[in-house]
Amino acid sequence: MNFKGKQQPVTIPRAAKTLRRTRIQEEKEEQILEAALDVFSVSGFRGSTIDQIAEVARMSKPNLLYYFRTKEAMHRALIDRVLYTWLEPLRAFDAEGNPETEIRSYIRRKLEMARDFPRESRLFANEVLQGAPHIEDELKGPLKELVDEKAEVIRAWAKSGKIAKCDPYHLIFSIWSTTQHYADFDVQVRAVLGQEHSGEGRFEDAARFLEQLFIGGLRPDRLET
Amino acid sequence: MNFKGKQQPVTIPRAAKTLRRTRIQEEKEEQILEAALDVFSVSGFRGSTIDQIAEVARMSKPNLLYYFRTKEAMHRALIDRVLYTWLEPLRAFDAEGNPETEIRSYIRRKLEMARDFPRESRLFANEVLQGAPHIEDELKGPLKELVDEKAEVIRAWAKSGKIAKCDPYHLIFSIWSTTQHYADFDVQVRAVLGQEHSGEGRFEDAARFLEQLFIGGLRPDRLET
DNA sequence: GGATAATTTGACCGATTGGTAAACATTACA
DNA sequence: TGTAATGTTTACCAATCGGTCAAATTATCC
């Protein structure tokens, strides 16, 4: 649930000869990754500098490099920490549930994540946009497997007539893109909507529209051309 | 129609005291912008270097800087050249046309652009993702005005019952995001689809799905909740 | 409280960055 | 064909890049 929840010790400081992580290590690594997320999510890997991250983290550059040996290591640690949680909504997709409910709440969850964790969304967007040089394996491995599994669920729903016949992969892509759009292209959305519509209600407006679109678009009670 | 069609002289070389552009200027600027598109569309502004562009363009760095005084100038020229064409599909959206046909062909056109001009799509994606520091004015000005105008068209269609009642802005956003996704997140799409579905048919599959989704989702002949 | 390990820092390194100066080569045009 | 304007290149610059090092500081534990 929480993006900041650790799954694994991220790195072991090079100077550390003990295996246990100290309190200071926990705190500082947290502090660094938080800053790294700020910077990487805006400028991408190539466009970000260790100095920028150091400044945001309020540490000296050598101090950063004491905890993460290289810029790559910092990026790696960040990706690892965020990736698992990022896929949670899709994992929650339940084959036994009611199709309409499942799709509706998947959209909701993805939209909430775009609202609450835009930096995480942009981190991946930047990475993928630039050819995913650091996460290719994750895409072709765990991600593909998860999507394959859920696509099969959707295909079964379509086959049994619970939803309209459709390509499950492109359905998933379209849910990803429409929801993440609000995080990744936030500046554009704001610019186009202007101040009138950029406030509180934006999230609800988007949710309502997308549910209408997908629920309506997937209604089974109509012959498809 | 053609991305490479010039609208305006892009820059005037600093050394040029004449106002006319020579044949060499035309060719070299073309060559540079072509290379710049290659590089900027992958790495974004900050992550790209003049040396990279010079290498792709097969010119020496000072030679590049003879035509474009700074990295910013190159980026600026590129944006200017591409932006107008990029909005063409939306501009073609016809108030007098049949709603279903118009939406269908808007999706088609956007999808074709994602297929045929992925670099241009990524150029903007990178820019917007990183906070649109160089194109904020274009977003708040020309883009917003165009979208406002077309949103009004869609609203009128909804009001007269030709399509379902829906938020026209979020409809436009969702068409943008779903179509551009195939350019911007190409690596991910490929990774997930695997080799089986990544071939020729991908474009047609996506088009079919999106048309089904949007046409179905916007059918007026059903009371909305 | 002192020894030891963990942490932090300033000074520094070679490579790369965006950009310049000026000499040199080429082109266009009279 | 000469020459002035245009185009290209080599050598270079200061600033910044990712990263190292050794010395100084702080936390930990007996």
Provide a descriptive summary of the structure in words.
Two copies of one chain form a homodimer. With 225 residues, the first copy, chain A, is mainly alpha-helical. Chain A is built from eleven helices and no strands. In chain A, helix 1 (23-47) packs across helix 4 (71-86), helix 6 packs parallel to helix 9 and helix 6 (99-116) packs antiparallel against helix 11 (202-217). The longest helix of chain A has 25 residues, at 23-47. At the A-B interface, helix 1, helix 7, helix 8, helix 9 and helix 10 of A face helix 1, helix 7, helix 8, helix 9 and helix 10 of B. Chain B binds a DNA duplex (30 and 30 nucleotides) through residues 13, 15-18, 22, 24-25, 28, 49-51, 59-63, 65-67, 69-71.
